């Protein structure tokens, strides 16, 4: 896939999360999410931190401080939107394919080319859109081309016992429904498409 097409798909995913976060009201912030360690507040804070981390990495800055959770302040939607726009701006540069992204969240020595970093960002925000929508009791949909690209990335993510380690980016994969869409993507990355019913069962 050409990097410009991938960039457009990533923008769709990110703008979908911006729209979801804009619907969050104060009472929602304490609700649980499919990410067991995070409430809605924690999930949004993580999403914002990831945006900031990718934006810093686009300049070659691999400092862990950029990836740390920060307060969402009095206006979580505005704080999140600012972080998301920073990532979109970082990925919009003409020489993205030539840049090297240090990604300390993936390991101390992890450095990936721009297109791969962009693909990681895309799948992250497709899945986090589902996480947030599920927590809010909303539905989320994506164009088929977004899902196809994210599914390809999700299938490339290694699975194994290391996903059980503290701080692992994803939980172990769960059985895929076989829909070739969003449910398969979240299942590959350790979420039950039936959440929260699967948790309560």
From TrEMBL:
Gene3D superfamilies: dinb family like domain. Pfam families: MDMPI_N. Residues 15-133 form the Mycothiol-dependent maleylpyruvate isomerase metal-binding domain. It comes from the Bacteria. NCBIfam families: maleylpyruvate isomerase family mycothiol-dependent enzyme, TIGR03086 family metal-binding protein. This is TIGR03086 family metal-binding protein.
